[in-house]
């Protein structure tokens, strides 16, 4: 039986994550958000076949949630 595990490492201004297919331990995707809350925040998301990187302007509550939900929805097919 296979299942997925998400590992998260959160710091004061950064967040790293990795989604693994278990029990094999295959990496499905990984990402990094740096300088959270700052004007020059950076987001990087990688899968086996794609890499997305960019900067995100500071945003408030619902807009940030919507942006994160959109990226997460794109990963749900993996």
TrEMBL record:
Coiled-coil parts of chain: none
Annotated region described as Disordered, given as residue ranges: 54-78
EC number: 2.7.2.1
Keyword Transferase belongs to the record: yes
Molecular function terms, GO-annotated: acetate kinase activity; ATP binding
The entry's keywords: ATP-binding, Kinase, Nucleotide-binding, Transferase
Keyword Protein transport carried by entry: no
Similarity comment: Belongs to the acetokinase family.
Protein name (Swiss-Prot/TrEMBL): Propionate kinase
Provenance organism: Salmonella enterica I
Source species taxonomy: Bacteria, Pseudomonadati, Pseudomonadota, Gammaproteobacteria, Enterobacterales
Gene (name only): ackA_6
């Amino acid at each position: 039986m296979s299942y997925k595990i998400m590992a998260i490492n959160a710091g004061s201004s950064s967040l790293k994550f990795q989604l693994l297919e278990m029990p094999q331990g295959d990496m499905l995707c990984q990402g990094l958000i740096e300088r959270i809350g700052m004007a020059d925040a950076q987001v990087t998301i990688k899968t086996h076949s794609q890499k997305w990187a960019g900067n995100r302007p500071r945003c408030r509550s619902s807009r940030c949630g919507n942006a994160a939900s959109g990226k997460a929805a794109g990963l749900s097919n993996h």
